[in-house]
Write a structure and sequence with these properties.
By secondary structure, this protein is mainly alpha-helical. The chain folds into 4 domains: 6-154, no CATH class; 155-278; 280-392; 408-524, no CATH class. The chain is 63% helix and 6% strand. It is built from 23 helices and 4 strands. It has helices spanning 6-9, 22-38, 53-60, 66-77, 80-88, 106-129, 133-140, 151-177, 190-198, 201-206, 212-232, 237-246, 256-278, 280-301, 307-317, 320-324, 331-352, 355-367, 372-392, 442-472, 477-502, 510-513, 520-524; strands spanning 44-46, 49-51, 412-424, 427-438. β3 and β4 form a beta hairpin. The chain starts with 5 loop residues before the first helix and ends in a 10-residue tail after the last helix. The relative contact order is 0.04.
Length: 534
């Protein structure tokens, strides 16, 4: 928009305003037109601008309005800095701007506002692009010379520039989200520099309320960028710094509490990571423990490692008290070790049916200071495993030693009976019977076999010894054999039971088997090991 001061082009600024009447204006105009006609190019040079006769005549006609004539005269004489800014955008105005009394007149503001808003817009966006915060704020102090109808013109370019910068940030965020970005864990820190360059906090915070909506959009855009970086990269420092910078902006939106909450989360995680890096040697040691547990889990799944051995290796590889005594930087590794023990527990049960080892592992995991979420899962696991242990005791873990898993070739087969009908005249009995397999591990079978051998040895020895003694007493050979057999049977049973007790396992006698989970309820219901007779 072209501003021309007719007082200046007519060279009347040296005259008293009262002397500038129609005759003085006509005389000066005639002289001006003659100069233009006699010029080489038919133009008037005004502050570096080429004016035509038409341009000059049009603005000279405005002097017929007494108010405008006074405003033009004031600009040409006492407000030269403002005059030059309106004419050619000379920014010297901003270095020594003072609020003149005339600047408070609504009519004067309406007079200069269209021209001022046009140049104001250009100056403001230039200061923004140059990141010149002192000039930017100086320019904003002059916005009192802009009326409401020209406010959009005055802020148009800055608004467009900010929107373009928001779009640039959104593009970076989208590329990261779509995995099309060229940024790496190291180079992603460059995004902070882009944000600071695009949205210098001093300039953004000096913007008037007209830009509040855009300031809120800037904050939201930076927040979305840090979320994308958080999800895509292992760098926590950049999201932290981006959110910290965001919260320096004058945000007035419903999203601000979200930004603050996000910052608390990111700061906590970033502080933990800094602490972890500082304690890397310690963490490396516990990372090796984690690797060992994960390796054991794979071996248990492949059935190349017994769960019992996995438990022994796990308990030998680390001390729970030592792990719990580490500061907060170890929170993550504690959780990971806890979850790894849980995985090993699950594999011990699912792949090798070792409920005892599964329970032991989950109890170790519960001793670790893990997160409340992890603790809740482990407690649920313990509850479910305990229920399974109670239900299947002696089925999936050997009943006799409570340690090893049963072996198919070591089971005990027993026939049990239950009387279903009995009559005395005539004497008759009816009964049901069923063959029951009692699971047992190979070690307990071996121990029971040793005791069984000694049982038969004592039984046969007792019979023979009793028979010899009976023969020495006339006609008491049979009685002596029977007495010796009873003594041998009692001794054999005692030796068999003693052998099992010596080895730390339950014996395989009928009285012991009657309490086995598979048989206990049936025994209460009337089943026996003896076949009913009439």
């Amino acid at each position: 928009m072209l501003f021309i001061n007719p007082i200046e082009i007519l060279e009347l600024q040296q005259s008293n305003i009262a002397a500038i009447d129609d005759n003085a204006i006509k005389k000066a105009k005639k002289k001006l037109i003659a100069e233009i006609d006699l010029s080489d190019d038919g133009h008037l040079n005004y502050k570096g601008q080429k004016l035509t006769k038409s341009d000059c005549e049009k603005v000279i006609d405005e002097l017929s309005n007494s108010d405008k004539k006074e405003y033009y005269y004031q600009l040409a004489t006492t407000n030269q800095l403002l005059n030059n800014y309106l004419a050619v955008g000379d920014e010297k105005l901003f270095t020594s701007f003072k609020q003149e009394s005339i600047y408070k007149l609504p009519d004067f503001i309406n007079f200069v506002s269209p021209y001022f808003a046009y140049n104001f817009d250009r100056s403001l966006v230039k200061a923004l692009k140059g990141n010149n915060s002192s000039l930017f704020t100086s320019i904003l102090r002059t916005q009192t010379l802009i009326n409401q109808s020209n406010i959009n013109t005055a802020f148009k370019s800055v608004s467009i520039e900010l929107q373009n910068k928001i779009a640039e940030v959104d593009k970076i965020r989208q590329e990261i989200k779509d995995e099309e970005s060229e940024y790496t864990d190291v180079s992603i820190k460059e995004t902070l520099g882009i944000i600071k360059k695009n949205f210098p906090v001093d300039i953004i915070n000096s913007l008037p309320t007209y830009f509040q909506s855009q300031i809120n959009k800037i904050a939201a855009s930076i927040n979305y960028l840090q979320l994308a970086i958080w999800d895509a990269f292992s760098n926590t420092q950049v999201p932290h710094d981006l959110l910290e910078y965001t919260l320096k902006l004058n945000i007035e939106s419903v999203g601000k509490p979200t930004f603050e909450k996000n910052f608390e989360i990111v700061k906590r995680k970033n502080d933990e990571k800094i602490e972890q890096e500082k304690n890397a040697p310690t963490l490396k040691r516990w990372a090796n423990v984690l690797i060992q547990i994960k390796s054991a889990t794979k071996k248990v799944e492949a059935k190349t490692l017994k769960p019992k051995e996995a438990v022994a290796n796990a308990t030998a590889s680390f001390n729970v008290s030592e792990l719990n005594s580490l500061p907060s930087f170890a929170n993550e590794i504690r959780n990971q070790i806890g979850y790894s023990l849980r995985s090993l527990s699950i594999s011990s049960w699912n792949d090798q049916s070792d409920i005892a080892s599964a329970l032991q592992l989950i109890k170790i995991a519960l001793q670790i200071n893990v997160s409340s979420e992890a603790k809740a899962k482990f407690l649920q696991d313990e509850k479910e495993l305990s229920a399974l242990d109670k239900k299947y005791k002696g089925v999936f873990v050997c009943y006799f030693c409570d340690t090893n898993a049963p072996d198919e070739g070591s089971k005990i087969s027993k026939t049990i009976y239950k009387e279903t009908y009995r009559s005395y005249i005539p004497r008759r009995v009816q009964f049901s019977y069923v063959e029951v397999d009692i699971p047992r591990c190979s070690r307990c079978k071996e121990i029971h076999s040793k005791g069984n051998e000694k049982y038969w040895m004592f039984l046969i020895g007792g019979i023979v010894l009793g028979a010899i003694i009976g023969a020495m007493i006339e006609e008491h050979f049979i009685i002596g054999g029977l007495v010796g057999g009873v003594v041998g049977w009692i001794a054999g049973n005692a030796i068999e039971s003693s052998q099992a007790t010596k080895e730390g396992v339950k014996d395989a006698s009928n009285s012991t088997l009657s309490h086995h989970p598979i048989l206990e309820q049936r025994m209460k219901e009337g089943w026996t090991f003896s076949k009913p007779s009439a």
